[in-house]
Design brief:
heterodimer, A: mainly alpha, 71% helix, B: alpha/beta, Rossmann fold, 2 domains, seven-stranded mixed sheet, six-stranded parallel sheet, 10 helices, 17 strands
Chain lengths: 347, 370
C-alpha cells in the first residue's frame, strides 16, 4: 500500500485543486461543470486537442529538467529560460554557419550538441558559483536569464540581423532542409521524442546509477556526503550541466522545429513554466512526463476557455497556481496517511 | 445510494448543458461571419493590444458576426495551435493574428494548410510573389497623427527638448520618431528629440526609468512607441510635464498634461472586412490607409493645448485629409548630416521605400544601433 502513496496523494491534490478552481469559476459567474468540460475538450477531447497538448508539453519536459536535476543535489535553480535562450543561440549559429556545408542530418546533430554544450555550461556556471564562491544559485540563475535574453536581443537586433527582416528583427534562416519535421502525419514535431528520451535517460541516471544515488546523498546532507568522500563539487556541477543541457535542447527545438531562425520569440517563457513542472513532479524525471502533459493540456485549453466562456487568459494561471499550492501543501501528507501505516504495527 | 443518484444527476446536467452548447454552436455556424482575433499581450494594456480588442468589440456588436479572441498568445508554436483551434473548434473563416512576429513562419505555415480560411495580418508585408493567396496584410499610416502630435508638442514645449521612448529600432518605429520630430521642427527648427530604445515592446521598468531621466534632463514633452504607453504617460503626468499618447486614447491617465495622441481605428478596418466577407466579395490582400481613410485618428486635445497649436495642427490635418500633405519631402538630412532625401524628391505615404527606413532625421538625438 505504501507504494500507492506517491500516486494517490498527487491525484487527490489534483482533485482538490479542481474543486477549488470550480469555486473560483463559480464566483466569476460561470458554470464550473461547463468549464471543466471545456478544459477536457481543449486538452484531451480529440486528436486535434491531444496534438495541441503534446506540442506544448515537449519543451516543458526539457526545461523542467533544468530545475529537477539541480534540486536533487539540493539547489533551487530557476535558470531554465536562460539555458533555452543560450541553446537556441548556439543552435542557430551552428545551423546558419553550416547550412549547406554538411548534410542536414549532420547539421541537426551538431546543432543539438552545440545547444546541449552551451545550455549545459551556462547552468553549470551557476552550480560552480554556488559550490566554489557560495553565490546563491536561485538569484544567480535568475540573473543569468536576464543576461542571456539581453545577449539574444543584442545579437538579433545587431550583428546577426538579417537586413531583410524589417519590422521583426531576426537572423537569416537556418535553411528548411535543416529543420526538424513532424512525427508521421501529425502536427507534433519530433521535439516530443527528444523530451521523452531525455526524461527516460535522466530517470535512469538519477534512479538507477551510483552517480544518481550520490547526488541524492548530497541533496539530503552535503556535509555527510563530503565526509563520505563523495566528489560533491563535481556532482553539483554535473547535475547543473545535465539540467542546462536538457533546457538547451528545448531552445534548439524552438529554432530547428518551430521558427527556423533566431528571433526574440525563442524566449517564450518555457523555462519558467518548467520550474512549475519540476516541483509538481517532485523532481522525478519520470514523473515529469505526465505532469508536463497535464500542464501542456491546461495551457492548450486556455484558448478555448477564453473563446467559449469569455474568461481572461489569467484563468489558466489561476488554475496552475492553485495546483502548485495544493500539491506543495500535500507534500506534508507523505508518511501520515492511513496508507503509510504498515499492517500490524502500532505506534 | 442517495449521494450516488445526486452525482449522477450532476453529471447528467453537465452533459445536457454541454450538448446544448454544441447545438447552439452548430446553429450560428450556418449564418454568421465568424472571425478570430489573436493578441500577443493583454486585452486591457492601454496600448496596441487594447486597440485591436476595441476593434474586435466593435465588429462583434454586429448581430451577423461571431467574433472570438485570445490574449497573451506567444509568437511561437502556440499561435499556430491557437489559429488551428479557432479554425477547427470555432469554425473561423477569417483570422486576424495581430502581432508582427506571428507572420513568418507561423501564419504562412498555417495558411498553406487551410487554403479556404483567410489570414489577415496587421503590419506584415504581404508579397504576391512569395506568399499564399489567402494571406493578406493591413496597416495604417499612423505617422500622420504622430506628425500632428509633433506640431502640438512643438507649440507646447518651453525647453525645446522632446523625449521619445521607443521599443526597438525597426522601420515603423523610426518613421514615427522622424515624423514626430519633423512635425515639431516645422514649428521651431531648433527643437530636438531625445530617443531611448528600451530593447523590448513591454519593458515597464526601463520605460519609467527613461521617462524620469528625460524629465531630469529638462525634456518637457514625452511620447513613446511601446506596446503599452501607460507607464510613460503616467510618469509624465506625475513629473508635471506634457505627454502625447499612442495606440489608444490615454487622456484619462494624464488629465493635466495630456496634449493629444495617435490612435488606431481598427473598428473601421474590421467592420469593412466583415462586410466584404458577408457579401462574399474579393478581399484585398493589401489594405493601407491614414487619416483620410479613417484607419488612424488623433485623440482629442488636452486642456494644455493652445489655440494656436490647435489651429496649426488642424490646418495640416486638412492637408492630410485632402491628400496634399507629404511629410517626407526633400531635402531631408539624417542626424549624422547625410542627405537621405534629395532636394525635389518626395516620398508620399504609400511609397514602399518608407517602410524600410533605417535613419533618424536631423534633430533626433540617438542612434539606430539601439
Amino acid at each position: 500500500m505504501r507504494l500507492l502513496e506517491p500516486l494517490l496523494i498527487p491525484l487527490a491534490a489534483l482533485v482538490v485543486s479542481l474543486l477549488l478552481f470550480g469555486v473560483f469559476v463559480a464566483l466569476a459567474g460561470h458554470n464550473p461543470l461547463q468549464v471543466y468540460h471545456s478544459i477536457y475538450r481543449g486538452a484531451f477531447g480529440s486528436w486535434f486537442s491531444w496534438q495541441n497538448t503534446l506540442v506544448r508539453a515537449s519543451p516543458l519536459m526539457l526545461t523542467a529538467m533544468c530545475t529537477a536535476l539541480p534540486a536533487r543535489v539540493g539547489l533551487i535553480v530557476i535558470g531554465g529560460e536562460g539555458a533555452v535562450v543560450v541553446g537556441a543561440l548556439a543552435a542557430a549559429l551552428v545551423g546558419i554557419g553550416l547550412n549547406g556545408v554538411f548534410a542536414p542530418v549532420a547539421v541537426i546533430g551538431l546543432m543539438l550538441l552545440a545547444a546541449m554544450a552551451c545550455g549545459g555550461l551556462w547552468v553549470a556556471a551557476v552550480g560552480a558559483l554556488r559550490h566554489y564562491r557560495g553565490v546563491n544559485e536561485t538569484i544567480s540563475s535568475l540573473l543569468f536569464n536576464y543576461i542571456a535574453i539581453a545577449i539574444l536581443n543584442f545579437l538579433v537586433i545587431g550583428p546577426l540581423r538579417d537586413p531583410a527582416s524589417l519590422n521583426k528583427p531576426a537572423s537569416v534562416p537556418i535553411g528548411s532542409d535543416n529543420m526538424i519535421g513532424n512525427i508521421a502525419e501529425s502536427s507534433v514535431h519530433w521535439g516530443l521524442a527528444y523530451g521523452l528520451l531525455a526524461c527516460l535517460t535522466l530517470w535512469l541516471v538519477v534512479r538507477r546509477s551510483t552517480m544518481g544515488f550520490a547526488m541524492d546523498v548530497i541533496g539530503g546532507n552535503p556535509r555527510a556526503a563530503y565526509l563520505a568522500g563523495l566528489p560533491v563539487g563535481r556532482l553539483v556541477i554535473l547535475a547543473c550541466l545535465l539540467g542546462g543541457a536538457a533546457a538547451g535542447v528545448a531552445g534548439m527545438l524552438e529554432v530547428a522545429a518551430v521558427h527556423g531562425r533566431l528571433s526574440s520569440s525563442v524566449n517564450a517563457g518555457y523555462g519558467y513554466a518548467g520550474i512549475l513542472v519540476a516541483f509538481l513532479a517532485r523532481h522525478n524525471p519520470l514523473a515529469i512526463i505526465p505532469v508536463a502533459l497535464l500542464l501542456g493540456g491546461i495551457r492548450a485549453s486556455g484558448g478555448l476557455l477564453q473563446r467559449s466562456h469569455d474568461l481572461p487568459d489569467a484563468t489558466v494561471l489561476v488554475l496552475q497556481g492553485i495546483i502548485f499550492l495544493v500539491i506543495l501543501a500535500s507534500e506534508s501528507l507523505y508518511g501520515r496517511t492511513p496508507l503509510s501505516q504498515r499492517p500490524g504495527v502500532t505506534r | 445510494m442517495k449521494r450516488r443518484s445526486l452525482l449522477k444527476g450532476i453529471v447528467a446536467a453537465g452533459a445536457a448543458s454541454a450538448v446544448a452548447g454544441l447545438g447552439s454552436r452548430a446553429a450560428w455556424a450556418q449564418s454568421k461571419v465568424r472571425m478570430g482575433f489573436i493578441y500577443v499581450g493583454p486585452r486591457d494594456d492601454y496600448g496596441y493590444n487594447q486597440s485591436h480588442f476595441e476593434g474586435k468589440s466593435a465588429v462583434a456588436r454586429l448581430d451577423w458576426v461571431k467574433a472570438v479572441d485570445e490574449e497573451n498568445v506567444p509568437e511561437t508554436i502556440e499561435v499556430v495551435k491557437t489559429m488551428e483551434s479557432m479554425i477547427n473548434l470555432d469554425g473561423a473563416q477569417v483570422l486576424f493574428p495581430t502581432s508582427f512576429g506571428y507572420f513568418d513562419p507561423h501564419i504562412l505555415k498555417v495558411a498553406r494548410k487551410y487554403p479556404e480560411v483567410k489570414f489577415l495580418h496587421c503590419g506584415g508585408l504581404w508579397d504576391a510573389s512569395k506568399h499564399p493567396r489567402n494571406v493578406g496584410s493591413y496597416f495604417g499610416y499612423i505617422d500622420e497623427p504622430v506628425y500632428l502630435a509633433g506640431i502640438v508638442a512643438g507649440h507646447a514645449s518651453k525647453t525645446g527638448k522632446l523625449g521619445y521612448i521607443a521599443a526597438i529600432p525597426i522601420p515603423q518605429v523610426l518613421r514615427n520618431i522622424n515624423s514626430f520630430t519633423l512635425g515639431a521642427r516645422s514649428v521651431n527648427p531648433q527643437i530636438t528629440t531625445q530617443v531611448v530604445f528600451t530593447g523590448g515592446w513591454s519593458n515597464p521598468v526601463k520605460e519609467a526609468e527613461s521617462a524620469n531621466s528625460m524629465v531630469d534632463q529638462g525634456i518637457d514633452v514625452l511620447t513613446c512607441h511601446v506596446d503599452s504607453p501607460k507607464v510613460v504617460v503616467e510618469t509624465a503626468e506625475k513629473r508635471g510635464v506634457y505627454c502625447c499618447g499612442y495606440h489608444t486614447d490615454q487622456s484619462a491617465l494624464a488629465p493635466r498634461g495630456f496634449l493629444t495622441g495617435s490612435e488606431w481605428n481598427w473598428a473601421k478596418v474590421y467592420i469593412d472586412y466583415a462586410e466584404l466577407i458577408r457579401a462574399n466579395a474579393e478581399i484585398p490582400n493589401l489594405v493601407r490607409g491614414g487619416l483620410r481613410e479613417g484607419i488612424v485618428k488623433s485623440s482629442g486635445y488636452g486642456p494644455a493645448v493652445s489655440a494656436a497649436a490647435k489651429q496649426a495642427a488642424d490646418a495640416v490635418r486638412q492637408k492630410f485629409m485632402d491628400g496634399s500633405m507629404v511629410v517626407y519631402k526633400g531635402p531631408i538630412k539624417d542626424n549624422t548630416g547625410k542627405l537621405v532625401i534629395a532636394e525635389g524628391v518626395e516620398h508620399g505615404q504609400t511609397d514602399i521605400t518608407l517602410e524600410s527606413m533605417d535613419w533618424l532625421v536631423e534633430g533626433v538625438i540617438g542612434t539606430t544601433k539601439g
